[in-house]
Amino acid sequence: MDKGTAHDLAVREGWLSQMPLDFRNAVLERARLREFTANEAIHIAGDEPGGMYGLVAGTIRVVLAGNEHGPYAVHLFRPVTWFGEGPAIIGQPRPVSLSATRSVSLLYVSQRAIGEIAQLHPAFWKCFVIPLMGHLDTALGAMADLMIRQHDKRLAAVLLRLGGCRSAADARMGPVEVDASQEDIAAMANISRTTAGSVMREWQSMGLIKIGYGRVAILAPAKLRTLFQK
């Protein structure tokens, strides 16, 4: 991917598309295009803070190292997601590990560049904090979904979140590929691999999903969401 295409994708949707034009231009002028291959680490939990990234192509696996157990895959970043702003702003180590599930293209804005942009106008600091609220909303939503008692509905909620189509407001109508194994999806939904496999095979027979090696395609997100809401 060339830098121009990456810029076009970054301003088409997501955080940067909603920011003031002056701020948007300042970010893109300083952003560097980085590309990673499948299974390559973006960064590891405990790494130095570095800058923030904007995912414009591909999918990134988010792995959390628990206090007593783990590590566990907990989420997938999809285009156009920006991340890394927290450590970059407060200067603390990376809290999670990230790796590419397939070839990915990222726009990288260094800590130094973030400081330069903030000096242009004090209000620009607020712009850099906004992605944090999006990550908080996702985390709170995931926590709420784990409180769903029926295991099949809980599994559907997790799968829809991983596909970026958890709510009806999401534009993705399908098919949507989820770069996660049945084992990982089961763990994220806090149910057994056997139970998850049984439920997903039933969904596949209904034409809602298609199970592949190390991934699941959501063929009909709206129908799966309706099933979940019954």
Description:
This protein has 230 residues and is an alpha+beta fold. The chain has two domains: 3-143, Jelly Rolls (Sandwich); 146-229, Arc Repressor Mutant, subunit A. It is 42% helix and 21% strand. The protein is built from nine helices and eleven strands. It has helices at residues 3-10, 21-30, 85-90, 111-120, 124-145, 151-162, 182-188, 193-205, 221-229, and strands at residues 32-36, 41-43, 52-57, 60-64, 72-77, 81-83, 97-100, 104-109, 176-178, 209-212, 215-218. A four-stranded antiparallel β-sheet has the order 1-8-3-6. The protein has a four-stranded antiparallel β-sheet with strand order 2-7-4-5. A three-stranded antiparallel β-sheet has the order 9-11-10. A hairpin with a 2-residue loop joins strand 10 and strand 11. The chain is globular and about 55 Å long.
Report the helical percentage.
40-55%
Give the low-confidence spans: none
Mean pLDDT, to the nearest integer, reads 93
CATH superfamily of the largest domain: Jelly Rolls
Main sheet strand line-up: 1-8-3-6
Number of domains: 2
Structural class: alpha+beta
Rg over alpha carbons: 18 Å
Helix and strand pattern: HHEEEEEEHEEHHHEHHEEH
- By CATH reckoning, the class of the largest domain would read Mainly Beta
Shape: globular
Describe the sheet with the most strands: 4 strands, antiparallel
The number of distinct helices, counting runs of at least 4 residues, comes to 9
Q: What's the architecture of the largest domain, going by CATH? A: Sandwich
- The total count of strands amounts to 11
Q: What is the CATH topology descriptor of the largest domain?
A: Jelly Rolls
What share of residues are in beta strands?
A: 15-25%
- Report how far apart the termini are: 42 Å
